[in-house]
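Input/output pair, single chain:
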Amino acid sequence: MMNIERAVITAAGPGQRGIPLQTLVDRDGVPRSALAILLRDIQDAGIRKVAVVIRPGDEEAYLEAAGELAEGLTFLPQEQPLGYGHALSLAAAFTEEQAFLHLVGDHLCVSDAAAGCARQLVEVARAEACAVSAVQATRETTLSLYGAVGGLKVPGAEHLYRVECVREKPTPTVAEQELVVPGLRAAHYLCFFGMHVLTPGVMEALSVRLAAAEGTPVNLSAALDDLARREKYLAFEISGHRHNLGVPYGLFQAQLALALRGVDRDQVLAEMVTLLAQRGGGLA
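Output:
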């Protein structure tokens, strides 16, 4: 069984760095930053050592946003905006050539099961002893927002797929040619959830890609595509939903998802019904 003791959150992107600092009300009805909600999900998976890749100077704001979960956090500053792949590569020493959990700071994942999304993913990765990316069946109209995988369902395993290729924000034409997964609804593809368990092989692939790029940005999907050809790599459909906080109404949708799965569900539903009733004929 694979040992997973560390996690890495990337939050240094120019349009990403302020998103984990935003406040939402979590499922327990407690106001928390998006960062704190991510950290709680990581802890639920049994992981206590967490590094956050940030822009220099953001340390104090992130410590405040982490609150009581700040103890033991490691900050890794990305001096230049050289892309997602470069940001993750900065954690190579922190991960100590071991498998690790990785989350993106501008996504929030809300579980539909008793176990949180991170725990679901980590349990699968430990059992399968390989890299596993969380995915969600996604309509082709939003392919431009996500990396996507192509592959085949693992025989006898529910919601588990063997990854054969990875494409970053593919066009519908590319997706139709390379990423069709038998068993999915028409015009739906397996897109990343913003959460992965990755092996040292990913860091090796990133190192090669970054050396060849000579200072130009490198995305993670390219390295994951390399990984799919080198070692066992799976995709897992988590029981839950991702919410991209960086798109219009993304924070609102995430907050609504948390509320409808939390202790204040009945109150929120009642207030929504009242609001809609007040709108009256204006909705027609």
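Residues 6-272 form a domain with the Spore Coat Polysaccharide Biosynthesis Protein SpsA; Chain A fold (CATH 3.90.550.10). Residues 36 and 66 are 5 Å apart (CA to CA).
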